[in-house]
Amino acid sequence: MSHYDAIVIGAGQAGPSVAAALAAEGDHVLLVEMDRVGGTCLNHGCRPTKALRASAVVAHQARRATEYGVYTGQVEVDFPAAIQRVHTLIDDMRDGLHSWLLSIDGLELDTRTATLIGDPTGREHRVTVGDQTHASGRIYLDLGGRAAIPAIPGLDTVQYLTEVELLRLTALPRHLVIVGGGYIGLEFGQMFRRFGSEVTILAGSGIAAREDPDVAQALHDILTGEGVVIRNTRPTRVGPDGDGIRVETDDGGEPVIGSHLLVATGRTSNLDLLGPDHGLATDERGFVRIGPRYETSLPGIWALGDVNGHGAFTHTAYQDSQILLTPPRTVTGRVTTYAMFTDPPLGRVGMTNAEAGASGRQVLVAETPMSAVSRARLEGETAGLMRILVDADTEEILGATILGMQADDVVQIVGLALQAGISYPILRDALPIHPTVAEFLPSILGSLKPLE
Ligand SMILES: Cc1cc2nc3c(=O)[nH]c(=O)nc-3n(C[C@H](O)[C@H](O)[C@H](O)COP(=O)(O)OP(=O)(O)OC[C@H]3O[C@@H](n4cnc5c(N)ncnc54)[C@H](O)[C@@H]3O)c2cc1C
Ligand SMILES: NC(=O)c1ccc[n+]([C@@H]2O[C@H](COP(=O)([O-])OP(=O)(O)OC[C@H]3O[C@@H](n4cnc5c(N)ncnc54)[C@H](O)[C@@H]3O)[C@@H](O)[C@H]2O)c1
């Protein structure tokens, strides 16, 4: 049995930087990755989807070109070329990461699945990879997750897709049926509609279910305005239908017959892949239970990224690694800013109206439709809204929702203010640049009113 100073399992968003930092401090480190380095984000998550989105945005803009006095002629999407562009970019990024990891002194990379037997004393945890067992007193888990597959009768009789297989398609689906109206369903749904697929989203109890109803409705209008069909229903049965897939639903409506079926109903943790003897305590959702510095229930084992249930994004996973590496920082009190990359995107931080209303605080709201934002009007991107919530008594900023052009960037100003504990008058009195989207943050804070 070989011994390492530290073993890192998972080369997703947190593992590589932890492994590299430990090796730089002189540790002999083993990094185990069962798939391709870079994890979900690099291989079948954020980056390929945002690269593909770029093609969808260009197609959309080209179709709208005459609104801007520009003539492009007939717009056609070459889907194989768009997906090839994605693969070229991603392969290059992955190769860069892989080469960097191989170049680090003191770091060994093993590309197989690891199982773990946790030692309750913390002295000698055992990690098995293939027919080799290694021991270490320090184990860092960056296991991530995978698509959760709902128990829909007949689902196993068809070749359904998750995001992994969808991104491997080389031909455009004629009709993409998507189960789930969350991040993945909405981002892909809009993209494939813009490429020319028919798209039907079966959204359960509604799209963007964690957002306020008016925000979800605005998103609904944007997507259906582009021809995406959204039905608030769940599949009751799935089966083959000729060369397509037939999906029956619980709304009594007509079954949907698509050429492809994407399942995007949330994620499940990869913890099970460590085998039955890891010994780690989990929470009620199956995530590894952690303390403020990522310590698990077993001494000498830390859990970072999606698998600890304290974030579900690349930036939260990567920040986990940075917090871990810079004691005494902790994850406690982290303000999570995030974006849904529809076009226009939805930027979010802090409370929704519903959460603020239920908080027992005296809440003030400032908002504007994007159609009143001069930059948005100038650029012909007037869909959406901007909203900030504040506490009337303490002057704290409570949250922001921005659905509109550049919302993914603009919302970070509010995120930073929230993280820094800046009171809203400071943001209100800041000097913004004109004409930008962000200039409306100070501007709308001048017209706060009680939240109804
Ligand atoms: C389609 C899609 C789009 C997304 N878009 C965005 C976005 O725009 N912005 C954003 O912030 N987030 C986005 N996300 C979420 C983001 O990808 C994840 O939150 C992020 O990748 C989590 O990082 P992680 O390091 O925790 O896990 P992962 O990136 O999943 O990495 C975990 C790694 O551990 C490996 N592993 C697991 N178990 C073992 C084992 N037993 N042995 C060896 N290796 C193992 C896995 O193979 C994987 O490589 C998206 C996700 C999806 C699916
Ligand atoms: N822009 C981003 O940062 C980004 C993009 C994509 C994914 N992600 C990450 O990936 C995670 C997973 O995304 P997702 O879209 O799979 O999950 P999600 O949790 O965002 O949405 C899943 C939706 O599917 C619905 N649903 C569940 N079962 C259903 C059923 N049987 N029929 C119909 N609807 C059903 C749920 O009610 C929910 O609204 C996200 O939570 C996010 O953390 C992030």
Question: Could you explain how this protein is built, in words?
Answer:
The protein has 452 residues and is α/β, with parallel strands linked by helices. The protein folds into three domains: 203 residues, FAD/NAD(P)-binding domain, CATH 3.50.50.60; 111 residues, FAD/NAD(P)-binding domain; 114 residues, FAD/NAD-linked reductase, C-terminal dimerisation domain (Enolase-like, domain 1). Helices cover 30% and strands 23% of the residues. The protein is built from 13 helices and 24 strands. The strands form six sheets. It has a six-stranded antiparallel sheet, sandwiched between helices. Strand 13 and strand 14 form a beta hairpin. Helix 1 packs parallel to helix 8, helix 3 runs antiparallel to helix 4 and helix 3 packs across helix 6. The longest helix is centred in the N-terminal third of the chain and has 24 residues. 42% of the residues are buried. The mean pLDDT is 98. Bound molecules: flavin-adenine dinucleotide and nicotinamide-adenine-dinucleotide. The site of nicotinamide-adenine-dinucleotide has 25 residues, from helix 6 and strand 19.
Question: What's a concise summary of this model?
Answer:
The protein is α/β, with parallel strands linked by helices and 452 residues long. The protein has 13 helices and 24 strands.
What's the arrangement of secondary structure elements?
Blueprint lengths: L1 E2 L2 E4 L5 H10 L4 E4 L6 H6 L1 H18 L15 H24 L4 E4 L3 E4 L7 E5 L2 E5 L2 E3 L3 E3 L15 H4 L8 E5 L3 H13 L2 E5 L10 H13 L3 E3 L3 E7 L2 E6 L6 E3 L1 E4 L3 E3 L31 E3 L10 H12 L11 E4 L5 E5 L2 H6 L4 E7 L4 H5 L6 E7 L5 E7 L3 H14 L3 H5 L11 H6 L3 E2 L2
Parallel strand pairs: 1-7, 2-3, 2-8, 3-4, 8-18, 10-11, 10-16, 11-12
Antiparallel strand pairs: 5-6, 6-7, 9-17, 13-14, 14-15, 19-20, 20-23, 21-22, 21-24, 22-23
The structure holds flavin-adenine dinucleotide and nicotinamide-adenine-dinucleotide (NAD).
Flavin-adenine dinucleotide binds next to helix 2, helix 3 and helix 8.
